[in-house]
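To whoever is covering the structure queue this week,

Two jobs came back overnight. Logging them here so there's a record in the thread.

Job A:
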Amino acid sequence: MFFKDSPEHAAFRAELRTFLDAELPAGDWDMRNDRDAMPPGGEAFTAQFRKQLAAKGWLTMGWPASYGGSGASYMTQTVYMEEMSSRGAPGAYDQGVWLAGPALMMYGTPEQRDRWLPPMRTADSRWCQLFSEPGAGSDLAALQTRAVRDGDNYIVNGQKIWTSGAQHADWGILLARTDADAPKHKGISYFLVDMKTPGVHVRPLENMMGTDHFSEVFFEDARIPLDCRVGDENRGWYISTTTLDQERSSINRIVMTRSTLGGLIEWVRANPAAYRGRQEITHELAERHLEFEIGRWLCYRVAEMQSQGRVPNYEASISKVFGTELQRQMGVTGMRVLGMAGMVEPGSPYAPLQGRVERWALAAPSYTIAGGTSEVNRNIIATRGLGLPRD
């Protein structure tokens, strides 16, 4: 692969930057890069911004033309996500478009595609992913939410947790156990759930930053129509694994680091007297910069493999581990650079970088858990990448 943009990608990158300069609010927008923050205007701004992305065809650019997309290459999509994430643009990563949409294209019926794909394409539906449970996160196949067939419906009971954006979602992607006696990977089915279904209860979870990006979702005799099951009964795990690899291969977690790193570098340059004789600070910032470049190219490696028709597996896990560990380390570096001032929350006139480092330091450790823990991904790298034994 080439370590620079093609002329086509360079032009697209310039177009994206011009659009973002014009459409994002002025001010320190980059501090909103962390997933637990909301943009100015909250959900209304996000909905309007997603409509703009949809009107330009960017929201579903990676979809085949037959489904209303433009068939953009994986590398083009990577450039898009890199620019959007580096500026903290809301709504660029859409769980319906990136997760449910491809599942429907591969496993859905024509009727299901006609029903759910158009609202995704026009940004008229919002989605969440109902996978993790209190006892099934890293070991997702251990999930216990039950879906029991009852005529033309399934009756669902159980609990999901750490569901991003559930309180704002119209639809959810649900994994539920439909055969309790089957081996745990083989008794799971894949459903699309109307979040307004009677018996579906969403309870937001407020974290220590005072935000409620995550929710827990309870199912109490919720009836899901048969035509909301995607693919064959008990084959949902194999649909979901494609979804998980897509989630772990995104470049957004790397470029989210860039704006915070840039802010810290500018802070040190603007306050040279405070860092005179502290050469370890400049060395640490240099290390983070090198790691950012390494992480960026690990993500590009995944995109290049996809462009060649190959399915990244342990390669996606390498990218995920490196990216989220870098995010965590950026929080540590930020606190070392700013000292106790780095603990001041946003909104205070005494907060360096408008409190960005305080938000980052609190949020970043969770990134090593969400989307597959570092430990689980290291096991994938060890067994599938290095061929090491499981025991």
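Job B:
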Amino acid sequence: MKIQQSISLKAYNTFGIDVKAQKFVEVTDQSQLKSILEKNTLSLLILGGGSNLLLTKDFDGLVIKNNIKGIDIVVEDNDSVTLKVGAGENWHRFVMYCIDNNYCGVENLSLIPGNVGASPMQNIGAYGVEVKDVITKVEAINLKDFSVKEFENQECDFGYRTSVFKTSEKGNYFISAVTFKLSKHPKLNTSYGAIDNELKEKGITNPNIKEVSDAVIAIRKNKLPDPAQIGNSGSFFKNPVVTEGVKNTILQNFENAPNYQQPDGSYKMAAGWLIEQCGWKGKMIGNYGVHDKQALVLVNHGGAKGSEIFQLSEDIISSVQQKFNITLEREVNII
């Protein structure tokens, strides 16, 4: 464990933004973290997979890269398995581990970038599934007194792409592990998005979890850029949730506007569609812009500044507000 000085963070964020950290260290267990925190007097930035943030400037402080690994079976029976997973594990590799072992519940979340530790923070979701439905506990270390706390599912205050770790407890905890309870009896969710169509095209009528995962991977690869090829953070904006009145007003002028009724009677609108209607899809400004297949994704083709991409997001928010009277929220963290 070595604290490095003046390190570029380009390789540690999926946008590929080249900013520097005053100090940088990687930790692989709780004792290392405690040892570092006891001596640290600088501002802190915790990094996982670097997939859900936009770095807009050099970080004048200490960056701690979370590399705590491990997948352990806590309890298992004929119906389910409970796994405790290190926060530094790659999310997609964890999903593949589950599929290889026929553990069901995360197959719709295949190929989401980032690490396991970010999954409860963001309450990641895709194709009708949210990770909150399989999380039982989140183990986290208090950054002030170094005590370890286990947040039960309800204590995490999960919401749409948010949790207590992004709201009232933001910056207070270092997530070290996440506990998941997964089923051994598949209850597949294939009705959301294009999963059913993808399966039908492959002639699959009675899919297993691997086939659902393969369908999700194919869909995501078709419309989302690989961060290894084009810098991006996946979906940059949340899908806005609006009242029935706002939804109806939009449908008066755009009868095909995608909308999805929520349990509370509100409606989720497709942010990508809203952005596309404002003319942003595929728009490039020098070496950065909006992806040509999915308007939710902002891209860096190399050399862009985080501040430039942030300004692009501001311009998109402004144009959607003017056209639809809806204020988009960013899904990524701005540093």
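Note for Job B: The chain has eight helices and 20 strands.

Please reply-all if you pick these up so we don't duplicate work.
Q.
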